[in-house]
Design a protein that fits this description.
Number of strands: 16
Helix content: under 10%
Strand order of the largest sheet: 1-2-10-7-12-5
CATH topology: Jelly Rolls
Largest sheet: 6 strands, antiparallel
CATH architecture: Sandwich
Radius of gyration: 16 Å
Shape: globular
Structural class: mainly beta
CATH class: Mainly Beta
Order of helices and strands: EEEEHEEEEEEEEEHEEE
Strand content: 35-45%
CATH superfamily: Jelly Rolls
Length: 184
């Protein structure tokens, strides 16, 4: 596995090392020792799936408050998503900064989202499936940006701009300013 540091402290894009032959390829999507060796939590206790029939479906921004903060390993297994993370750790050097990533079934890239980050995505293809493995089970303390579930193309476009812009994001129902981000 290749762990590629992002512009946000503690977050990584992950690519699989493919062992190819005439049948196709084999590659690891998780290895406890490789995660531990980089100081990342290898304790994955819950896996969830999000299936979205329509292109333009918005999910996020999700996070869990203390003491149930969670790290996530995110992958798109069907279709394509534009995945965004925002560092909401007040003592972090990248606090209020964001990064965006295109995760697709074809590129097989994954994203490691550390504790203290908000996470969301916009489907950029129909019939898209996203899989998340988390270090904490889901708790009702979960909060998200109130952008709605699905709307008109204009509403989705406005929500997506907010999701990835430097205009701001809602955290715990309060507006916080979000600094400039990076797309990869």
């Amino acid at each position: 596995m290749k762990f590629i540091p992002t512009t946000l402290a503690g977050a990584y894009a992950i690519e699989i090392d493919r062992l190819e032959d005439e049948r196709g390829f084999f590659g690891r999507t998780f290895c406890r020792d490789e995660f531990t060796g980089r100081g990342l939590s290898p304790r994955l206790v819950q896996c969830s799936i999000s299936f979205n029939t329509r292109k333009g479906t918005l999910r996020g921004m999700h996070f869990q408050e203390k003491p149930h903060e969670e790290a996530k390993l995110v992958r798109c297994t069907r279709g394509a998503i534009y995945d965004v993370i925002v560092d909401i750790r007040r003592n972090s050097p990248t606090f209020r900064s964001w990064a965006g990533f295109e995760l697709t079934a074809e590129n097989r890239k994954m994203l490691y989202v550390p504790q203290g980050f908000a996470h969301g995505f916009l489907t950029i293809a129909p019939d898209t499936e996203e899989v998340t493995a988390s270090t904490q089970p889901r708790k009702e303390a979960l909060a998200k940006v109130p952008l709605g579930r699905m709307g008109t193309p204009v509403e989705v476009a406005a929500a997506a701009r907010l999701l990835v812009s430097n205009a701001g994001a809602y955290i715990n129902g309060q507006m916080i300013q979000v600094n400039g981000g990076a797309e990869t």
